[in-house]
Design the sequence.
């Protein structure tokens, strides 16, 4: 459990980091953020970079800032930074809730927001809320800056559309629209574990019917995805337990190639997706009703 | 001269004990909390090298070639060993049953994933790990057998071709007229159960530093070694050394629970030191090594069991058929876990006859090892599910059904069909206390309401025995020699009256050094701060076995009090001579030696010690002038096993009743423990805080066993659970608050009446949690037969019941 030999660089600025990337074969460079996923991979020699490029000294990549109708979170901001941010708490309680569901305090003290996005674990909470909220991921590379829609960013297991040589710099999380009821729930074998299956639901109620319903399932397959068939069932309908159950069934049906592992079979995951879809929808509805909108 | 070891607090030479029997702060803790305790990985020796082990990626394969040349040329590599070195310099591991051990490095074939094939000693662990990547091994993969039932088939692939079979042992033990009992029964309840492989995961994995002395031809081994003297004898056998040429230095270690086997890694490291001309070599097992091929994967069991019951609720017989998958070899003593249930086969019940159909089978998995409780926890899981099934069939409340079958107080000491004798108990009182603590009637009425709402709420009431004070006789059936298990202590008082106690075991977490200071300070009327406990290595220590088998608290109490009594006897002779009277007239009380009722004829302990040490000329000529004595305590009255394995083995029998309430989420299969209450009786509590700590930890491990922990393998024998992402230990979030109440029935046979309590709750917890789960599932006609009751399994059961959320009421 010791890493294979590697070179190490920890530049103080983003430009220098980009320069180092362009001077080296980007496939042989590994970027280090909080290390909560990468360090075990290095120690198990599953990742064997020639150069480890540590971004943690780059101050400009940290911090949480207000935009007009979004919050900009630096890629190197830790989950702890988010947890402590009243801006995120006020503007986006869903993003806040998903933050405290990640691992344990020790993990959140070090693990970064950008790291979770780039790691793209199918069971991670951040990619799921990013997809649900329609977050934008900002990357810098040899060709300059690129803004990527969350849904286009996550490709499949541990794979994103970030190019080798690019650094994720920022995540723009749109504010939760007024009156939106939301919910994020997951089943995990233990507190703090990656989810076996999780769900995010968002909806508004206008004139007693569901508006802009969004359902994202994570942990169940290769990546967090929205489920348009189920969303279509809800849009314009009066919320009810039966409606949410049929949305859950639609989700279960449309779930492609559920994961099968020691903790849960594919069938079990499919059924959990149904259950969590219905449960998150009813919690989201309660919140939407509570918001008085 | 007879040594008098007090059997109760009242018999101590003090008006009232100030320390023993109370929850004292532990003397071990300041160094632990400030990081000053020296664990093996903290030890640095001059010229020390670091070991990394190359392990088999196959569960079963022939080795056709091992090429180490490239690795040898890597700078920093000092020595490399392979199976050839093991053949040249060592013997196969001792095993149980005998003859199923292999060399520490694979010689001709590998038999499980993770089996050591070669090892490197290098200047640091990084280089050592770089080097093992440069070793090329050619394998010729063979079919792996991972299912013990399939492994028993005559045409099965053989784990050891030379054995001609995979069956290591196949015997039926019959204790009494079992067939008659089952024929005469009104009801026979019969079920299959599966207990999946799980085991200990101490905070610290195993580690060692081995030093081969090429001139003296001796070995010095430092390590996180639980049973140093036994470990030393094992290494002497492996390396054909005289036993006095192996010195074991046991470092304090971060828990064990059975997980500190470490023999294979130690033997590999010893070979490396020998090849490196005697340079010390350190091997620290990492967590992946531990989870893949470590020393404590335990209890991989398939059960078929039944009880016979009369209509009035009397259980008349027990049959247990066990197919125990021991993995690839017998080296890690998984077999003794299959034998230990003999020490408490029929649990707390008066079941008069029993049968054990025991099959030990080899498969291509890691050799199975010991784990806290050593084998009875799965046995009690099985017995308690049968008890509940029978109670349900008879329409009896499970608590009352157990009460009816409990061994009554007046029957102690009580001999069970499998031969062991229980010392004492008050089982009904323990049950009453547990039920009262839980407010059992209220739990049942809340459950009735929940069931009305269609919720799967269950209550488990389970009871089990914890055999205490480990004894080899229990293991005779798997070929262990039935000798005693001694524990010694040397107590010495210095010229200032400070007291040093020397023992042969190091810190493992259970607080025995604190216990020693409590005992000695009450005996001699000093403060615990005046007592220092010192660890000695195997070449210096008094006879010692160390912690294990819920024995050390009782055994060290006997040793320390015996040594104190020997000093008292000696000191009485000295004081009598000084006071010109007879030794019989001198009494030790509250720290003073003297003539009772004569205030001027009293000497303090330190005065007596000072006089002995400074003025030996004043002493009677045949008195040894040192205020020091060694006593070696061994459990009295143990008997060797007869043909059917029956022996008086474990000296004490603690008993507990756990009452658990769970709710199963009927959509997800997740179990929530809503209430956890227990009553237990482990005799006199020497340090109640320590007992509580042991209980809490053991409940946690029991919950892990019941719900979470499982080593899984695929069909090819590839382990699926090699990190803590997949091998799930319970965390503080998974463990409910445990409400506890104590019942104290002293043992008539032990020092101060204490019973073994170190393994504790894990005997009862998995049984109780599964009883609760099965009580919850009963209304939908389902039963969990497999441990752990993981959500995926419960979800399947609920689904099989055709149970959908819309069903509403059950
Ligand atoms: C015990 C434990 C429990 C956990 N539980 C959860 C959980 O419940 N939910 C969850 O979501 N996560 C969980 N995690 C993972 C944790 O959230 C990690 O922090 C996260 O996955 C990675 O973030 P990091 O900052 O540590 O990134 P690192 O480990 O440093 O990097 C991860 C990957 O991202 C790349 N990378 C990082 N930053 C950038 C960047 N700015 N630009 C380009 N590439 C980059 C790295 O090269 C690497 O490939 C857990 C981890 C542990 C150890």
Sequence:
């Amino acid at each position: 459990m010791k890493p294979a030999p590697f070179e190490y660089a920890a530049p103080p600025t983003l430009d220098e980091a980009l320069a180092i990337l362009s001077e080296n074969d980007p496939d042989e460079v590994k970027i280090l953020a909080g290390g909560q996923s990468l360090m075990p991979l290095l120690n198990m020699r599953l990742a064997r970079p020639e150069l480890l490029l540590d971004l943690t000294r780059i101050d400009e990549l940290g911090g949480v800032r207000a935009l007009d109708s979004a919050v900009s979170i630096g890629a190197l901001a830790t989950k702890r930074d988010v947890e402590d941010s009243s801006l995120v708490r006020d503007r986006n309680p869903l993003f806040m809730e998903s933050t405290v569901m990640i691992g344990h305090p020790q993990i959140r003290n070090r693990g970064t927001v950008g790291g979770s996005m780039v790691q793209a674990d199918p069971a991670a909470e951040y990619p799921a809320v990013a997809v649900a909220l329609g977050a934008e991921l900002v990357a810098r590379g040899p060709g300059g800056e690129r803004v990527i829609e969350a849904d286009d960013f996550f490709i499949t297991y541990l794979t994103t559309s970030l190019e080798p040589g690019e650094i994720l710099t920022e995540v723009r999380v749109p504010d939760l629209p007024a009156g939106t009821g939301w919910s994020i729930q997951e089943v995990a074998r233990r507190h703090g574990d990656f989810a076996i299956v999780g769900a995010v639901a968002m909806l508004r109620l206008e004139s007693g019917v569901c508006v802009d319903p969004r359902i994202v399932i994570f942990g169940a397959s290769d990546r967090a995805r929205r489920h348009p068939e189920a969303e279509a069932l809800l849009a314009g309908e009066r919320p009810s337990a039966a409606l949410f159950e049929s949305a859950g069934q639609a989700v279960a049906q449309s779930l492609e190639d559920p994961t099968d592992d020691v903790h849960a079979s594919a069938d079990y995951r499919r059924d959990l997706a149904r259950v969590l879809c219905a449960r998150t929808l009813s919690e989201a509805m309660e919140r939407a009703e509570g918001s008085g909108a | 001269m007879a040594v008098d070891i007090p059997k109760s607090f009242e018999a101590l030479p003090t008006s009232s004990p100030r320390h023993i029997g109370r929850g004292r702060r532990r003397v071990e803790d300041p160094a632990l909390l400030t990081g000053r305790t020296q664990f093996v990985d903290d030890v640095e020796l001059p010229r020390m090298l670091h070991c990394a082990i190359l392990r088999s990626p196959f569960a079963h394969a022939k080795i056709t070639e091992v090429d180490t040349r490239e690795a040898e040329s890597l700078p920093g590599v000092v020595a490399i060993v392979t199976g050839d070195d093991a053949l040249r310099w060592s013997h196969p591991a001792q095993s149980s049953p005998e003859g199923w051990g292999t060399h520490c490095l694979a010689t001709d074939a590998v038999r499980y994933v993770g089996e050591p094939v070669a090892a490197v000693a290098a200047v640091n662990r990084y280089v050592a790990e770089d080097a093992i990547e440069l070793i090329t091994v050619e394998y010729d993969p063979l079919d792996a057998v991972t299912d013990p039932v399939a492994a028993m088939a005559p045409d099965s692939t053989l784990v050891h071709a030379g054995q001609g079979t995979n069956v290591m042992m196949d015997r039926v033990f019959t204790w009494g007229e079992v067939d008659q009992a089952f024929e005469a029964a009104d009801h026979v309840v019969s079920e299959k159960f599966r207990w999946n492989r799980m085991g200990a995961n101490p905070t610290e994995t195993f580690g060692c530093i081995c030093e081969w002395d090429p001139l003296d031809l001796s070995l010095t081994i430092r390590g996180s070694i639980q049973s140093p003297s036994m470990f030393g004898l094992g290494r002497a056998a492996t390396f054909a050394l005289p036993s006095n040429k192996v010195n074991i230095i046991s470092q304090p270690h971060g828990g064990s629970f059975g997980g500190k086997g470490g023999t294979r890694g130690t033997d590999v490291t010893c070979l490396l030191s020998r090849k490196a001309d005697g340079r010390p070599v350190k091997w620290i097992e990492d967590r992946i090594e531990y989870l893949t091929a470590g020393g404590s994967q335990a209890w991989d069991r398939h059960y078929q069991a039944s009880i016979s019951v009369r209509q009035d609720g009397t259980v008349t017989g027990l049959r247990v058929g066990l197919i125990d998958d021991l993995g690839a070899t017998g080296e890690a003593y998984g077999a003794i876990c299959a034998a230990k249930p003999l020490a408490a086969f029929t649990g707390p019940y008066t079941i008069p006859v029993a049968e054990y159909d025991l099959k030990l089978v080899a498969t291509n998995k890691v050799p199975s090892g010991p784990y806290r409780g050593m084998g009875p926890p799965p046995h009690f899981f099985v017995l308690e599910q049968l008890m509940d099934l029978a109670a349900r069939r008879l329409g009896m409340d499970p608590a009352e059904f157990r009460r009816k079958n409990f061994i009554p107080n007046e029957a102690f000491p009580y001999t069970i069909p499998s031969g062991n004798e229980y010392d004492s108990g008050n089982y009904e009182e323990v049950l009453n206390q547990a039920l009262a603590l839980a407010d059992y009637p209220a739990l049942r009425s809340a459950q009735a309401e929940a069931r009305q709402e269609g919720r799967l709420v269950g209550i488990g009431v389970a009871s089990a025995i914890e055999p205490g004070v480990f004894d080899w006789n229990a293991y005779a059936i798997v070929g262990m020699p039935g000798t005693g298990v001694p524990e010694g202590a040397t107590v010495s008082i210095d010229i200032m009256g400070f007291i040093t106690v020397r023992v042969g075991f190091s810190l493992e977490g259970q607080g025995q050094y604190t216990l020693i200071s409590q005992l000695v300070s009450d005996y001699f009327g000093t403060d615990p701060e005046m007592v220092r406990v010192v660890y000695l290595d195997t070449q210096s220590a008094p006879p010692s076995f160390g912690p294990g088998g819920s024995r050390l608290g009782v055994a060290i109490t006997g040793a320390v009090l015996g040594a104190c009594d020997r000093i008292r006897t000696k000191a009485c002779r000295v004081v009598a001579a000084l006071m010109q009277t007879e030794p019989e007239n001198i009494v030790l009380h509250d720290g003073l030696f003297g003539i009772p009722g004569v205030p001027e004829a009293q000497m303090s302990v330190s005065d007596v010690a000072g006089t002995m040490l400074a003025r030996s000329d004043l002493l009677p000529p045949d008195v040894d002038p040192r205020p020091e004595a060694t006593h070696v305590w061994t459990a009295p009255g143990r008997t060797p096993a007869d043909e059917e394995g029956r022996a008086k083995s474990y000296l004490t029998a603690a008993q507990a009743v756990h009452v658990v309430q769970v709710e199963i989420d009927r959509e997800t299969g997740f179990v929530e423990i809503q209430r956890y209450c227990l009553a237990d009786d482990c005799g006199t509590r020497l340090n109640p805080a320590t007992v509580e700590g042991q209980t809490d930890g053991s409940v946690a491990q029991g919950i892990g066993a019941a719900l979470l922990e499982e080593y899984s393998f695929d069909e090819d024998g590839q382990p699926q659970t090699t990190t803590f992402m997949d091998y799930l230990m319970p965390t503080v979030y998974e463990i409910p608050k445990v409400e506890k109440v104590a019942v104290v029935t002293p043992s008539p046979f032990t020092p101060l009446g204490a019973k073994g309590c170190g393994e504790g709750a894990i005997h009862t917890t998995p049984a109780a949690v599964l009883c609760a789960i099965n009580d919850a599932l009963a209304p939908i006609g389902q039963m969990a037969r497999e441990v752990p009751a993981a959500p995926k399994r419960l979800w399947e059961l609920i689904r099989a019941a055709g149970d959908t959320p819309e069903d509403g009421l059950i």
Observations:
- Residues 804-810 of chain B have pLDDT under 50 and may be disordered.
- The first strand of chain B starts at residue 49 and ends at 55.
- Residues A 30-38, 55, 75, 102-103, 107, 111-112, 114-116, 118-119, 121, 124-126, 162, 167-168, 192, 194 surround flavin-adenine dinucleotide (CB under 6 Å).
- DSSP finds 20 helices and 29 strands in chain B.
